[in-house]
Amino acid sequence: MRTMKSHYAAVFTTEIATIGLQFEESKLTRIDYLTNQASKAPDSKLVANVKSKIEKYLKTPSETKDIKIDYVLNVTEFQGEVLKQLQKIPCGETRTYGEIAKILKTSPRAVGNACRNNPLPIIIPCHRVVAAKGIGGYDGATSGGLLSIKRMLLGSEGVYL
After folding, report:
1. What is the DSSP string of 96-151?
2. N or C: which end of the chain has fewer CB within 10 A?
3. Domains of the chain (ranges, CATH numbers)
4. pTM of the model
């Protein structure tokens, strides 16, 4: 989890975490899980709409399925290919790092590194990627609060590991 370093267009607390949203013009660029941060009201109607969509998804993922939001990714070409694969994983299902690696003809570790650097967790569902044996990591963590967030996201979709 991060402490507030950047300008967030909104900071809000959900059942799973305090979330910060960053935008470039009208497109979402980053979602961060924050610690010890006060809420910040959305600074525009667009940001309020994105916040509302994320909150709705977190409450009813099986009904919402995936969140449709305009975003821009500032990632490498390889990371972009991995993130495209993540978006193909349906709500309530998982894939292993190895399964995605096989599709992309790379290593599971490379897939894990791309997942770790996913700038839009929740929107691009890296929580649906798990290890061959167990839950794997989340946002670079293999224990603690971030892994609890992954468990809660998966659990809300009916996946229990």
Report:
1. EHHHHHHHHTS-HHHHHHHHHT-SSTTTS-GGGEE-SSS---BTTBSSSHHHHHHH
2. C
3. 10-64 (no CATH), 77-156 (1.10.10.10)
4. 0.90
Cβ atoms of residues 126 and 137 within 8 Å: no
pLDDT tens for each residue of 132-161: 999 999 988 888 999 999 999 999 999 988
Q: Which of 59, 57, 62, 63 is nearest to 120 (CA)?
A: 57
For the question of residue 126 being annotated catalytic, the response is: yes
Buried b (16+ CB within 10 A) or exposed e, 69-107: bebebebeeebebbbebbeebebeebbbbebbbeeeebe
Here the tokens at position 117 are 């650097």
